[in-house]
Amino acid sequence: MTFHPVPYRPTRLPDDEALARAAALRQRMEARRSVRMFSPDPVPERAVLDAIAVASTAPSGAHQQPWTFVLVTDPEVRRRLREAAEAEERISYDGRLGEAWLDALRPLGTDAVKPHLTDAPYLIVVFQQRFALDGDGGVRKHYYVDESVGIAVGMLLTALQVAGLAALTHTPSPMRFLGELLGRPRNEKAFAVIPVGYPADDCVVPDLRRKSLDEVLVRI
User: Fold this and answer.
1) Backbone angles phi, psi at 75, to 5 degrees
2) How does strand 166-167 pair with strand 131-133?
3) What are the residue boundaries of the Nitroreductase domain, all occurrences included (predicted)?
4) How buried is residue 100: exposed, middle or buried, by Cβ count under 10 Å (0-12/13-18/19+)?
5) C-alpha distances in Å from residue 37, one per residue of 21, 128, 202
6) Which residues partner with 123 through β-bridges?
7) pLDDT confidence of residue 61
8) Tell me, what CATH number does 170's domain have?
9) 3-state class of 114 per DSSP?
10) Mean pLDDT computed over every residue of the chain
11) Which stretches of the chain are DSSP H helices?
């Protein structure tokens, strides 16, 4: 395929508007928390679809866009996903994770019970396409898949937060059951399960401190 450049002339914002937008987004994102207690209240589906569309604008290696977003609302499918996830999580919390990992998790108050998989009105299961499947059965390698899908998930979480929705990045391990239950093709590997909805009225989150800008920024 030949490189075909096209003009790119985005509107340059005045400094005061750019600063105001950046400050507003920072304030919005500083309020983001990982939520494990969801309300069953319905969420406008358009907001979720728009957030997925934002995620799909992420940069990717060689512009191969190696991601699939599976939106799950069916109660029976979500029940089966929760059942399978909790079975794996019980094994993990009973020792598969190792004591160091369990020590790191204790301040977060997590365990093998995952009500968010059935309580949240939406589940977005993100799959990474390790390679492309051609129509004739051949395969084509994808590049920088982990990095590309990770960026897309970050943009998804940002879009959901801006829309006033709560989310959680859930990564049950191992995750092979997700592809099997959702009937995904052999080139796709589960990356994360993201419940989406509103926080429950009695929602609580860990009392955590984020690193300051000075702690994460290096100027050279």
Assistant:
1) -60, -40
2) unpaired
3) 30-198
4) exposed
5) 30, 27, 8
6) 72, 195
7) 97
8) 3.40.109.10
9) coil
10) 95
11) 15-30, 45-55, 75-91, 99-105, 116-119, 145-162, 176-182, 213-216
